Amino acid sequence: MIKIRIKLRTLLIAIILLVGIILSIYFYNKFQEEEKKEYIFNFEGIPIVMRAKIKDSYSIPIFPNEDFLNYSAFLLLSGAFKNVYMVFNNSDNLGNVALQSFQITYVLKLIFIKKNLEINISGLEFSQANFSLPNYYIFVKNTNCNQNFINVTKLNFIEICGVDTKGLDLATTRFLVYLLKYK
Q1: Pairing of strands 46-49, 62-63
Q2: Measuring CA to CA, which of 41, 160, 168, 175 is 20 to 30 A from 147?
Q3: Are 98 and 141 in contact (CB under 8 A)?
Q4: Distance (Å, rounded) from C-alpha 22 to C-alpha 38?
Q5: Which residues, 6+ apart, have CB-to-CB distance to 75 below 8 Å?
Q6: How far is residue 27's CA from residue 43's CA, in Å, rounded to a whole number?
Q7: Which residue ranges in the chain fall short of pLDDT 70?
Q8: Complete DSSP assignment for 146-183
Q9: How far does the chain reach from its first CA to its final CA, in angstroms?
Q10: How far apart, in whole angstroms, are the C-alpha atoms of residue 175 and residue 150?
């Protein structure tokens, strides 16, 4: 019979290391869960994952002011517009713009389904858009932007601008959270 002799001190060190590893894994996972929560907006029981931290998106300015966005959102979400165009510019980073446009489209469809309203959403190159009523235009761009912002150019025309990928993520998140919170 083989006897294994382990000193009490060695056993104590092994137990402390094991407990330390288990606690490290636990707190790392806990931290990751908390970090993920900063990207999730709960819309009527449906978690919507944003591409930027929601609290960070509140730093994005809205021009000319929030009242214009409020009225524009009211018109959009009341069903006043049957067609929404995601406007893009061919000179933009189209992959990132497409990603933002897809997220906006997803959220708008979700809101309209919950409100039991119909909406048509499609893409349109900037040079082909005439920005006329009764259509609603959301222009997502990341070129010719000197800052991250949301601009209500007309009541049926919103411009979402980001100087880089992170800025566009923040501006899009700000716009979407605004729409999701709108009652």
Answers
A1: unpaired
A2: 41
A3: no
A4: 25
A5: 81, 136, 155, 156
A6: 28
A7: 1-6, 30-35, 92, 183
A8: SS-EEEEEETTEEEEE-SSHHHHHHHHHHHHHHHHH--
A9: 76
A10: 7
Cα 128–133–136 angle (5° rounding)? 70
Residue pointed to by tokens 């082909």: 128
What is the spatial distance between Cα 151 and Cα 134, in angstroms, rounded to a whole number?
Answer: 19
Angle at the Cα of 109 (from 105 to 111), degrees rounded to 5?
120
Q: Give residue-wise pLDDT tens across range 9-56.
A: 777 777 887 877 887 777 777 666 666 788 889 888 889 989 999 999
The string of DSSP letters for 23-88 reads HHHHHHHHHHHHHHHTTEEEETTEEEE-SS-HHHHTTS-EES-HHHHHHHHHHHHTT--SEEEEEE
Cα(125)–Cα(102) distance, integer angstroms: 15
pTM of the model as a whole = 0.79
138-141: long-range contacts at Cβ-Cβ below 8 A with a sequence spacing of 24 or more? 138/84, 138/85, 138/86, 138/87, 138/101, 138/104, 139/87, 139/88, 139/89, 140/86, 140/87, 140/88, 140/92, 140/97, 140/100, 140/101, 140/104, 140/168, 140/172, 141/88, 141/89, 141/92, 141/97
Place of tokens 């700000």: 174
